[in-house]
Amino acid sequence: MATAADTAAMRRAIALAARGLGFTSPNPVVGCVVTDAFGQIAGTGWHQRAGGPHAEVHALREAGASARGGTAYVTLEPCDHTGRTGPCSRALIEAGVERVVHAVADPTPQASGGADTLRAAGVRVESGLLAAEAEAGNIAWLTSVRLRRPHVRWKYAATLDGRIAARDRTSRWITSPEARADVHRLRAEADAVVVGSGTLAADDPHLAVRGVDGASQPLRVVLDTHAVIRPDARVLDDAAPTLIAVGEHADTARLPGVETVRLPAGERGLSVHALLDELHGRGVRSVLLEGGPTLAGAFVAAGAVDQVVAYLAPVLLGAGPAALGDAGISTIGEAFRLETTDTVRIGPDLRITAVPVTAPKER
């Protein structure tokens, strides 16, 4: 049975793992805490960037000889393969660690097996400690492995009566500067930010991260079936990479030098699943969906929304577009039901985070 010290160490490892959000894709975020034979923390680490040393290696380097006879707390099962780095299972064995506690088993066939290797070497292995918390922190990567597509977080800002703009379509600004700054944090954690041509025409968004120190810029993705984007759109500057997804027969001659990808049509515009397949193939493991109601409706209808983050401002408009367009829901029994996982005040606004009651299934 886990002790209070075990729980505290694993919770610290989970916090360390979060420092890698936005930097490790297509690899997972992982945190590690190593204690010595007396239970004192000797080393900590997290996976800082793709291709770099894993969390266990950082923690073991810091612990040095103090790791011998100690315990390693890791948010994900130590890997058991040699890729751009060596197997962490072997590093733990060579360091003389006597016990390894990991929160989540590695679901990838190429990296799993670390627990078995450790046991075979006489290391005590325990799993499942704070598994739900560790999964939540690594949900983008886990979703990409389990569903073979990026994790999709849909973010929107609305009034208390659910309007994302006024009757005349003006929307700047419904939410506060604090809420808008928080959105940049979400962008910094994402591999790609996705909008539709309607949002681009209405708002000319920039979609790059601002105000987050050291942030990696996400891929800016625009779904533009007929390639009507203006050549001077802000999203086409060099602040971050951009990909324009167009229909199979779109004329892209007016967009020289702009990277485009052709996608088949879906039930509501371009195929959502074809887009996610394309992005997954490019190493994108997390998507922040910032499009308007039409694009959001297409993603909900496709069963491709894994998390909703709503910023609600204490404002009433009474008219104007709603946050969600046609999602193929015709009766209350088909409602897209969510479970609230977090509610926090951001300046004068309220940020509500929720996940689908029924988890998305593999296609």
Q: Which strand order spans the largest sheet, edge to edge or round the barrel?
A: 10-9-8-7-11-6-12-14-13
> What is the beta-strand fraction?
15-25%
Mean pLDDT: 92
The end-to-end span amounts to 38 Å
Gyration radius, rounded: 22 Å
The topology string of helices and strands comes to HEEHEHEHEHHEHEHEEEHEHEEE
Task: Provide structural commentary.
The structure is a single chain. The protein is of the alpha/beta class and 363 residues long. It has 10 helices and 14 strands. A 9-stranded mixed beta sheet has the order 10-9-8-7-11-6-12-14-13, sandwiched between helices. Helix 3 runs parallel beside helix 4. The chain starts with a helix and ends in a 7-residue tail after the last strand.
